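To make this tangible, this section ends with a sequence with its structure tokens:
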Amino acid sequence: MLEQQKENLRFHIQHLANEAIQKSEPLAWFEVVYAEAQGDTTQIPWAKLTPHPYLQDWLTNHQPFPSGQKALVIGCGLGDDAEALAKLGFAVTAFDISPTAIAWCGERFPNSNVNYIVADLLAIPPQWHLAFDFVFECRNIQALPLNVRAEVITSVASVVAPDGTLLLINRVRETEAEPSGPPWPLSESELKQLENLGLQPIEQLVFLESEQVDVKQVRIEYRRCHMQS
């Protein structure tokens, strides 16, 4: 029964996403998912209510961090990754396209030091350009179709400060052929775009999703060279 509910939810989300794409509003479906959930986290399939384990692993192995470094969490969802960074002394800004998700973060973490705001990955505020020492991008690029992918990747890269770090976690695919989605895993050439935008890969880890052993993901640490702008 539980597996059937998960499958029904997956099909419903795919329908919402494809409907939004047809209306040329590729991010609109996130708010629909959060609003329809009505406070039930089981209706948000990506909400684990704990920091992503591969973010937590990276943070554990790279401590300590200078206090007050500026961090940005892209598509923060219900806020667990942002809170993990704040606990380590980062000055965290976390955004999501969904007003419901951001309000939910405030309810979950009423005393948080994180600056939770509603923002659009395809319309990044200009003051964020090259502004963050640490940027966490987890599974947002893969959630958006290929016709906006170059724009999305450019937005992600644009917020990383000189000498700053981007930690990226996303599904990857083996070919350049367009996959069915969502999600739409990233290809090698799409990842290469980040390098073309001045981000140098430092460390890469390949892992498989726990429930789907055939779904390959990567965690890549990038660094922006100081001379790049």
Notes: Residues 34 and 177 are 31 Å apart (CA to CA). Strands lie at 70-74, 91-96, 115-118, 132-138, 160-171, 199-208, 216-224. The longest helix spans residues 2-22.
